[in-house]
Predict the structure.
Amino acid sequence: MSNPSKVFMIDLRAHNKRNLFQRIDALLDAAGFEQIDFKDRLTAIKLHFGEAGCTAFIRPVFVRHFVQRLLRAGARPALMDTNTLYRGSRSDSVKHLHTALQNGFGYSSVGAPLIIADGLKGTSCVKVRVDCPQLAQVSIGADLHHSQALLSLAHFKLHELTGFGGAIKNIGMGGADRAGKLLQHSTVNPYIDQETCIACGDCAIQCNFDAIEIPEGGKASIDPDKCSGCGSCIVVCPVGAIRTKMNAGAEHCQMRMAEHALGLLSSKAGRALFVNFITDVSPACDCYSHSDAPIVADIGIVASRDPVALDQACIDLLNAAPGLQNTALKSAHAPGADKARDIYPSIDWTVQLKHGERIGLGSREYELISVR
């Protein structure tokens, strides 16, 4: 049996002689930051800028600290993300950059330029051969592929298609261009429960593919030939009428997501570090124009050279924490209860971890080390 991967963690305690930024530096030191050759390398800081109206994304003041650390290491960092499938404030580079600036990610705030890695309309990509069980090749945002090193900064939260989103989702789904995202989502087929639907029209407004129709006097329906499977209609439905035939679809989505993560990292062997913020743990993705109340108290910040081990540690820490009352949690409030399954009972979140391990992305076995 191979040695478990090391995952390092700090809680959020601080005092006047040791602030949180100093503790983040200690976390990076423990996780092997200095062992990575960043000098003179174009370095992608892959993060999520947050949809307009979202408030749970990683604060720019923290991102600036990571930028400064990279600059001291001689790197040439840029903040990067890719455009979205769904209709929203980040579906093309112009809107995406406006949203990032409005959410506080200006150069004066973070000290690095912003790059939308898949171009103006999400079509700038590089096809990377992976020869994985689901896909022979994956489609990666061109500027992320061409970056010579990677620092992944992910806000750890729950997700309606993958159970949770952490490092794997940040670089796998978040690193793909529009074609890559379509490949990942094409197995997911939402449908509308006619008895529950109230014909409010929110889903039709949200859909970026004109796949939802509401006939006069009738209920909403989804045209499967037009639907991309992006799932953005699921969360906006106020009565929970939009559901998915998830068992196979979500599993394939998670596997393809992991395979895209592998493809992105293929050009950065030994030059990648992953950091997850287990803070403001919202019950849905930061891609929505709102952030619901956190389901647990803030847990901390974790880092590793292994994205699979990191995400496994994060979901374990989340489930071990007591759930907060008056949140989206239904019954999984006790420490040890599966929070993701409570909110998304049809999603097996272990798939992305098992498949990531199977294809060589990382290991689920980890040693959690607290950094003081």
In short: The longest strand covers residues 149-155. The mean pLDDT is 94. The longest helix spans residues 246-265. The chain has 13 helices and 16 strands.
